[in-house]
Amino acid sequence: MRQHQFQFESLGAAIGHLRHIRETLDATPHKDALLNIFTSGISVQEVETLLAELDKQLPGVKRVGVAGYKFYGDAGKPLVALNVLASSCTEFHILRLPCEPGGERLAAARFLDALDGMRHAKAIALFPVNPGLDVTDFLHAISERYEEIPVFGTVARPSDAQNDSFAIGQTLLSCGFVAAVYVGEALQVYMDYILGWNPIGREMSITLGERPTLGESVVSRIDGRPAVDIYKKYLGIEWDGDTIENVWMFPLMIKRNTVNICYIPVASKDGNLYFSGTIYDNEKIRFSYCTREEILDASFNGSERMTIFSPDAVFLVLCGNRVGFLQDEAHLEWDYYRNNHQELAYCHGYGEISFQNRKGGVLNSAFVAVGMREGSDSPKQTARYSIIPQKKFTPTGKIPLSYLVSHFFHEMTNELTHFQKHLESEVERKTQENVSLSLHVVQALAQAIDAKDTYTNGHSSRVAKYSVEIARRAGYTKTQLNEMYMMSLLHDVGKIGVPDEIINKPAKLTDAEYAIIKKHPAVGAEILHGIKEMPKLVTGARWHHERYDGKGYPDGLKGKNIPEEARIIAVADAYDAMTSNRSYRKELSQAVVRGEVEKGKGTQFDPNFADIMISMIDEDTEYTMKE
Question: What is the DSSP string of 404-457?
Fold first, then answer.
């Protein structure tokens, strides 16, 4: 595998040099060839002219690329970077996936269909275009089948002029994904994610806003305050998106799957902060901080790891935040790698992509380095590259203020983190004690309810068991399952107010007696309404006798207007009623019970939860679930 880098400051210069690129490629024996194209300050019309010339002068050469930022040299000048990769045994497959926001999963399905037909796919270079795309969702969809394949690349920069934002394949794409898949049995790939920033301060809770049209996520509140206020509170600045230079040194950071990921807002509006990558509602956020020495140390160490890998080709994707922070010394980051690989390719974009084994995603402030080589020897393991001696800035003489501040931040953060974890542990212990106490109270109350009916003792606990299993199969979290258990245990609490002679009457109830029975959901809701610590208890008590077709009681709710937990309890309650001996009949056979649940789909029961109960019945071949 051979790599050749060409860089031009005008479209005319690039086109005029295509003949030399052709001669260079002709002089390099190869099986397949790929041209990586990165542009800045070049319009879509100009790039279309370039592609037309490539069709003429480099026919058969595949191509991929993106419109990116130019953070180095004279930023006012245009840039065309052409990087040629000639392989001995690797094939390059270019995939073009037009996609509007919301269609990422469908695009991923088409991508997977193509990938399934490629043996020995080893790496994916991905170039999304359109800031409204959920690139992280696309990456996770791919990883469901190919999690070990490293994915790298960058998102095309957004532009006020729509025709200046595009991804490059054999043709241009203004919305969607362009990818190059590297396929070869002898191809070996090493991807390294380099940061340099470290966490400072405590972790803060977040509240997400609605899915934005710019970027992948929006944070509306941090620690209960408007999200944008975090900069005024901790940095003393008003950040409105036009002064990003003020927060370059302090990106926000989350920790996901043991990996630190930095984010810098791409916009702010109405107190909200918008981010190019995905942030999840169960994650914590904190500030991060770095020094020049820490960034350059991280890059130098990465270059040493890459040297050990001994690549034939190197690709670098760097965040403009690093360039803005390092200023005149920014070139040192890629120069470390150039010392051993002069012809490497590098680019900047809207968000760096590094994703493998479900770690990473769309990043900020990051440096992604990818090495490739062809050979028949055993693949090297990435873990081997982390054992090399790590360069670390050691102060001598007059110590720089930045180093002193960084050291102070790190030590204070370690102490704060330890203290915060101690407090969280204590809160969790107290919470568990309260939950345990509440559970004992609820169980005792449920037993008191069941004791009123001599024929159905244990009804509440069985309904709770069935409800929790239905909810578990429906994807409920552990916290939600705990809530479901409490709700379903007390769904019949209103029967406390029903006379025993009515509950245990062996004959058919009169209309007046049935009217009394039908009051128990509302009575139960009134009883539980005062328990402010567990507000969802009311849900199961009041609405477990509603019907999916709207013919239930007490409120005649219909379909999805019935709270989901109540729809689950309704199925579980009916199952236990049919499989228990009652004062007026014996338990029903399993076949009859299954038929009744099937018949009630869409009328009495939510079809989805009825189907789950039917699956549980079908798995219960010995008819023992009712016990």
Answer: HHHHHHHHHHHHHHHHHHHHHHHHHHHHHHHHHHHHHHHHHHHHHHHHT-TT-T
CB 450 within 8 Å of CB 489:
no
Q: How far apart are CA 17 and CA 593, in angstroms?
A: 78
Please report which confidence band the pLDDT of residue 506 belongs to, taking 50, 70 and 90 as the band edges: confident
Q: Where are the beta strands (DSSP E) in 213-319?
A: 217-222, 225-226, 252-256, 259-263, 267-269, 272-275, 285-289, 313-318
Place of tokens 């969280």: 424
Q: Tokens for 158, please give them.
A: 């957004």
- Angle among Cα 511, 513, 514 to the nearest 5 degrees reads 65
Exposure string over 227-265, b if 16+ CB within 10 A, otherwise e: bbebbeeeeeeebeeeeeeebbbbbbbbeeeeebbbbbb
Q: Identify the burial level of 155 via C-beta atoms within 10 angstroms of its C-beta, where 0-12 means exposed, 13-18 middle and 19 or more buried.
A: buried
Tens of pLDDT, residue by residue over 71-84, are: 555 556 788 999 99
Round to whole Å and give the CA distance between 23 and 86: 13
Query: Which positions ≥6 away from 480 have C-beta within 8 Å?
Result: 471
Average pLDDT over residues 280-286: 89
Residue 212 confidence (pLDDT) above 90: no
**Residues 85, 32 contacting (CB under 8 angstroms):** no
Confidence of residue 389 (pLDDT cuts 50, 70, 90): very low
For residue 433, give every residue at least 6 positions away whose Cβ sits within 8 Å of its Cβ, in sequence order, or none: none
Question: Do 299 and 336 contact (CB within 8 A), yes or no?
Answer: yes
| C-beta atoms surrounding 414 within 10 Å | 11
Measure the CA–CA gap between 457 and 451, rounded to whole angstroms: 6
User: HEC states along 533-562?
Assistant: CCCCHHHHHHHCCCCCCCCCCCCCCCHHHC
Cα–Cα distance list, 88 to 2, 345, 375 (Å): 8, 19, 10
SS3 525: helix
Q: Cα angle at 324 between 320 and 327, to 5 degrees?
A: 125
Cβ proximity of 140 and 194 under 8 Å = no
- Tell me the pLDDT tens digit for each residue of 533-587: 678 889 999 999 999 999 999 999 999 999 999 999 999 999 999 998 776 678 8
* 91-98 and 121-129 strand pairing: unpaired
Q: What's the start-to-end Cα distance of the chain, in Å?
A: 67
